[in-house]
Amino acid sequence: MSDLQDNLSAVAPKLQRFQEQTLGHFIDGQASLGTGGETFTNESPIDQSPMGQVVAGSAADIDQACLAAQRAFSAWATMPGDQRREILHKVADAIVANARDIALIESYDTGQALRFMSKAAIRGADNFRFFADMAPSARDGDSLPANEHINYSMRQPIGPVGVITPWNTPFMLSTWKIAPALAAGCTVVHKPAEWSPCSAALLVEIMHEAGLPPGVMNTVNGLGETAGKALTEHPAIKAVAFVGESVTGSRIMRQGSQTLKRVHFELGGKNPVIVFDDADLDKALDAVVFMIYSLNGERCTSSSRLLIQESIRDQFLERLAERVKKLKVGHPLDPATEVGPLIHQRHFDKVCSYFDIAKQEGAKVMVGGEPRPLNGKGHFVAPTLFTEASSKMRIAQEEIFGPVLTAISFSTEAEALAMANDVDYGLAGYVWTSDTGRSLRMARDLEVGMVWVNSENNRHLPSPFGGMKASGIGRDGGDYSFEFYMETKNVCIATGSHTVPKLGV
Ligand code: NAD
Fold this sequence. Notes:
Number of domains: 2
Radius of gyration: 24 Å
CATH superfamily of the largest domain: Aldehyde Dehydrogenase, Chain A, domain 1
CATH class of the largest domain: Alpha Beta
Number of strands: 22
Oligomer: single chain
CATH topology of the largest domain: Aldehyde Dehydrogenase, Chain A, domain 1
Structural class: alpha/beta
Bound molecules: nicotinamide-adenine-dinucleotide
CATH architecture of the largest domain: 3-Layer(aba) Sandwich
């Protein structure tokens, strides 16, 4: 297995293009530097070194991309599904062929450990394969016979769509949106997060090299308040698929209201993992550690609140603390690294502010609670465990989005449920118990879009993915994705035997 030095040597030539040439957009099958001339600097979270200049897309750039997507729509939407399937499989093949480069660059750009980004790149290919295979049947509808009429329904792609993505696992998340949109027959304008633009550039280039027609997929870099806003307001865009913070979601809803955009939101979370005293505690411990400290805790479905039953609290927290202390924080390209640096100085400052908030609120910092720079640099923080917390504290209510876990104890099932539901968010919940009845009751009563029982976050692409409350609107996965990217049309045909009401006779 390659070590850090091998990985650094492998990534250096790949980074060169970003360092030497301004990263622009990809519109209508071509690279473009846009019209506004403004750029921003992309920095690596590892040591704050510049990774190159990126074009800050203007409203005019977004307009060009949306018009390209509009022009390409008719041919792509009417292309037979099996031809779309073939092209999307070629995209998946090309992602697999480039998976190592994608993972290395993603890791360098986001600070996410390579061990996870290698899998995320392959998962991006899986997303394309999965939705490619659904392309031929995407438009299928129902046959709904009535007494004197036959109704049948069909689905048609809604039109050009906007996809706006965050920085936490940008490559994988983008494919999770773009693949079903294209399989449905929509064309896409993608606005990647400004803090992690590199892998989106690789994706759109790979897609075109794999044979995607020009204009079907367009990428515009830029800031949320300008490029992102213009995309959500553009009249050619019929729907916006957004992944990001809840507060941005509500802004996008306002921005899109003038043009009556359909919106799909995957937003923040403050997900509970509830460990009962009858659980398989070894497995539960592994899952608790994995689901907050993997991906730097920058994961929407991370279980950032541990609700632990009082009878096992002390022994469980003791074992948990030992594991947290042993987590390997380091260079994200080091294969041994488990926790890398946080994406950006602003996010690092936000996460660190909770170390003080926890103390002010009267919680105990059992492990971590401080920055941990690597060679004096980078946005590294120590994996952190807060204990003796209560449900109303900010550390138990707000999404910190770092390797920071807040533990709260409970005595009864009812208390655990009430605490689990006592947040604005409702994305995911994790339950550890050997009592089948209790797992069924919790699964029913948790106010979340997804429940995992005796499991960490295990994904199944046909299953619905999404949140309740402030965590989102709509579901992705399998046919749920097509419900968003397609319109359902009903056709009603008379069999000829009914009488039409006569007026004015
Ligand atoms: P963010 O909301 O700040 O930004 C996300 C994207 O929205 C970026 O591309 C940004 O440029 C753009 N944006 C910002 N303002 C905009 C505006 N006014 N109009 C249009 N676009 C705008 O989120 P982030 O900080 O990049 O990502 C972290 C958040 O994403 C966390 O809250 C996390 O929970 C959430 N997330 C949710 C899921 C999920 O599936 N529920 C998955 C991953 C991340």
